[in-house]
Description:
The protein is mostly beta strands. It has helices at 35-44, 116-119; strands spanning 14-24, 53-59, 62-65, 76-87, 93-100, 107-115. One of its GO terms (molecular function) is calcium ion binding.
Amino acid sequence: RNLLLPDGVPPERQWARFYIKIYRAEGLPRMNTSIMANVKKAFIGENKDLVDPYVQVVFAGQKGKTSIQKSSYEPLWNEQIVFTEMFPPLCKRIKIQIRDSDKVNDVAIGTHFIDLRKISNEGDKGK
């Protein structure tokens, strides 16, 4: 209740659900061309350059992610991620990142930010 709110944000805000629908990705790059991939190939004969992609979404301090699509350059998810946050949100953008799942360290393939001010209506119903 003691939160300092920016101008134009009402002191009483309602809870809202934000739905992010993730459909698919196209043209993902070949991965695992690093030194570690060459070490794997030398020791265990594994030469896997396919990606195991998933999408991670970050919004208002919350994280959500899709399932991992094994060995796919054109993954199809048709999944949605739901966030619950006060409306209007104080966060002005959504971070969407395609990542390659790896046993040691997941790697970001691509990142995009969606500016909520560009996709919402003006006024009380969509500020």
